[in-house]
Amino acid sequence: MTTTSVKQRPSHVTEEWSGGNVVAVEHPLVLHHVTRLRDRETSPEEFRHLVHRLSVLLAYEATQDLPTDPHIVHTPLTNATGGRLRGRIGLVPILRAGLGMVDPILNLIPDAEVWHLGLYRDEETAQPVKYYSKLPPDRPVDVALIVDPMLATGGSIVSALAELNDWGVKRAKVLSIIASQEGITEVNRQCPDADIFVCAIDDELNAAKFIVPGLGDAGDRMFNTVQPQ
Ligand code: PRP
After folding, report:
1. 77 by DSSP, 3-state: which?
2. Catalytic site includes residue 125
3. Residue 2: which of 53, 61, 52, 66 has the closest Cα?
4. Which residue owns the Cα nearest ligand 1 atom 15?
5. Separation of 148 CA from ligand 1 center, angstroms?
6. Cα separation of 32 and 167, whole Å?
7. Which residues line ligand 1 (CB under 6 A)?
């Protein structure tokens, strides 16, 4: 899969900077499905299917560097040395829209632990508001995959990364389908060690802090709760 690494060095970081990779996955399937996802005529049912497909493609890319241990199995003929994933992997959906990315990634990583974070964006201030977190006080996962289809101002992702940091998580990756350039820059600035994987980066945020052209509100489109204007 072709990827574009658009790693950005935040201006305040002066030392050698090793984290904070930003990867925009470039692939005909990604382009095809993102385009359908953006289309306002796409039904909630198709929207959910598209989020599934794109989540698999994103997760494939984001998990390329997960460590494995050698593992021997007995085939019907002889022994074969393969590998199995090492360590505990946490899948962290941001409610609500992140829920749509959980099942497809759990299919790829069936032993992942799912830790939900409830955050919504205040409509007036565009600031994230926390309403659910049950992270335990200790035993952090070895790597966390935060999933949310949209990264707009980046406030929700920064808040989620702060919670994971408080839990003691050392490696966090963000998987979003659509991001704004401004939001990516902000996450990089505040959390320079987090890797970000996206399917598309849009140039603009409008006055209401919606991604333009974007796809509208992913949670509402996924769960068929779009309110008439
Ligand atoms: C949307 C989206 C992200 C957040 C992105 O959620 O799913 O969680 O906004 O915005 P930000 O980058 O500016 O923080 P929303 O608040 O609409 O909640 P929902 O998923 O329950 O619809």
Report:
1. coil
2. yes
3. 61
4. 120
5. 8
6. 38
7. 94-97, 119-121, 126, 128, 148-156, 183, 209, 217-220
Is 70 exceeded by the pLDDT of residue 105? yes
| pTM higher than the cut 0.85 | yes
In the chain, domain spans = 2-8+18-69+85-223
Q: Is 88 a catalytic residue?
A: no
Ligand 1 centroid to 127 CA: how many Å? 10
Work out the burial of residue 30: count CB atoms within 10 Å of its CB; fewer than 13 is exposed, 13-18 middle, 19 or more buried. Answer: buried
Tell me the C-alpha distance between 218 and 181, whole Å: 18
User: Could you confirm whether 148 is annotated as catalytic?
Assistant: no
Domain 2-8+18-69+85-223: assigned CATH number:
3.40.50.2020
**Closest to 88 measured CA to CA, from 139, 37, 159:** 139
User: What's the CA-to-centroid distance between 41 and ligand 1, angstroms?
Assistant: 21
Q: How far apart are CA 197 and CA 22, in angstroms?
A: 6
19: DSSP letter: -
Residues near 26 by beta carbon (within 8 Å), at least 6 away in sequence:
1, 2, 3, 4
- The per-residue pLDDT for range 47-67, each reduced to its tens digit, is 999 999 999 999 999 999 999
Residue 88 in 3-state DSSP? Answer: coil
Q: Which positions ≥6 away from 31 have C-beta within 8 Å?
A: none
Residue 220 appears among annotated catalytic residues: yes
